[in-house]
Write a structure and sequence with these properties.
There is one protein chain. With about 375 residues, this protein is α+β, with helices and mostly antiparallel strands. Strand 1 and strand 2 form a beta hairpin. Helix 12 packs across helix 13. It is globular, with a radius of gyration of 21 Å. It binds flavin-adenine dinucleotide.
């Protein structure tokens, strides 16, 4: 049976539950992972369909309280995307000899989830990567960790958290703590790869690292840095190209364009995001280094939040005053998305980018940058 791609988040629950390992996650022509069944290994038990979170049901939590959160340690703020909430929570889990799962950008610039038991590995998880993360075999590994009585923190997009819950089913989750992100959508890993290749062509060097939304210009400015060895390349049309593609919603996963998790009903114990517009509520607040928004969704979440009180400056907020689109409704596919994909698949990435952003756009970008400088 043909898979309906508009109903698959790529969460890997079906692959993880399969008793005969008949399911593999393989990329489609747009680079998104989808389950592929090896019919010879399939025994028709149907567990893959039963475990799929797409069928939904009610979200387990209605969010209760909301807070702005700024970690007290400046070094933490420098190395995270918002206000350092993830670091504070994961520090608690590490202090209990627990295990942390989250997304990293590896040395080949691939985004995938890893298991971390040390500060060093946890630090590799910090920071947002605006690309869909490959969960690999994390779900099975989490199940093992829980069975061994370990405390586990899983952080990811809401569809990943929901997929994990569906997969775990009746497993005892007393020691599991989940953090979902406020998520605007996940772009294609293949387009990310193409973007890196184009960047390398423009720079005539191998890109060895990349920083999404570094805080050099402050938390509210969304610009990127590419590294070639020790050299930093920031803020050119090509370093910022991927984020342009992200915000224009040209290359999102299909399900991100009708995402059921974009609401105040949440799947994680805590929700983390950027506390945008907080200066309208607390005009005296210094927001330069970043502010997290924390939504406390469950009793478990409340307990964890109480444990991190001392690590940060915390301000109660009225959720209605700092509400943002991904907490209300799903983003929609860009009108020119199909055209972009057709251009890409027929003529390659550079042509697709030129078609959509053209010379005029590059010139406009450079003029704006020049004006901003003076
Ligand atoms: C694709 C994406 C879209 C987002 N959209 C919004 C938005 O619209 N509004 C908003 O307020 N916040 C959004 N965020 C969340 C925000 O950017 C911060 O990640 C979040 O506030 C955590 O910041 P922090 O300082 O607490 O943690 P950090 O130390 O920055 O830790 C980052 C956390 O995000 C997780 N993570 C990073 N990249 C990925 C990924 N690709 N897939 C799954 N998990 C990932 C890590 O596992 C880690 O837990 C988005 C994040 C991502 C990854």
């Amino acid at each position: 049976m043909e898979l309906d791609k508009s109903k698959c988040f790529g969460c890997t629950a079906c692959k993880a539950v399969c008793p005969t390992k008949a399911i593999q996650m393989l990329p489609d022509e747009r680079g998104f992972l989808y389950p592929c069944v090896n019919e010879e290994k399939c025994v028709g038990c149907n567990r893959c369909e039963q475990v799929c979170p797409y069928k939904g049901g009610a979200m387990p939590f209605e969010t209760g309280e909301a807070f702005a959160f700024i970690h007290k340690d400046k070094n933490v703020l420098k190395n995270c995307t918002s206000g350092g909430l993830f670091t504070a929570i994961s520090d608690i889990v590490l202090s209990k000899n627990g295990v942390i799962y989250g997304a990293t950008l590896d040395e080949n610039l691939h985004v995938h989830h890893i298991r971390a038991v040390s500060r060093q590995d946890r630090d590799r998880i910090r920071g947002s990567k605006y690309v869909q993360s490959d969960l690999k075999d994390c779900f099975a590994s989490i199940k093992n960790d829980l069975k061994e009585g370990k405390v586990v923190l899983f952080s990811g997009t809401p569809c990943q958290v929901d997929g994990l819950h569906h997969f775990l089913g009746s497993v005892n989750i007393e020691n599991l703590f989940t953090c979902d992100l406020i998520c605007n959508g996940c772009p294609s890993p293949l387009i990310w790869e193409e973007n890196v290749k184009l960047l390398e062509k423009k720079l005539h060097k191998k890109v060895t690292g990349y920083s999404f939304r570094p805080k050099e210009w402050g938390w509210n400015i969304h610009k990127e840095i590419a590294y070639t060895g020790n050299k930093k390349h920031h803020s050119t049309f090509y370093t910022d190209l991927f984020i342009r593609l992200y915000y224009s919603r040209l290359v999102m996963r299909n399900t991100c364009n009708h995402c059921p998790y974009t609401s105040l009903s949440r799947v994680g114990d805590l929700t983390m995001g950027d506390c945008r517009n907080i200066e309208k509520i607390y005009p005296e607040m210094d927001t330069f280094d970043g502010v997290s928004l924390v939504l406390v969704n469950s009793l478990n979440g409340r307990k964890m939040f109480e444990r991190i009180f001392d690590t940060a400056a915390i301000y109660p907020v009225d959720i209605n005053k700092i509400i943002q689109p991904p907490l209300i409704k799903s983003g929609k596919e860009a009108r020119s998305s199909e055209r972009f994909w057709n251009n890409y698949l027929n003529d390659g990435f550079e042509t697709a980018v030129r078609e959509h952003y053209g010379k005029f756009c590059v010139a406009k970008y450079n003029i704006k940058k020049l004006l901003h400088k003076n």
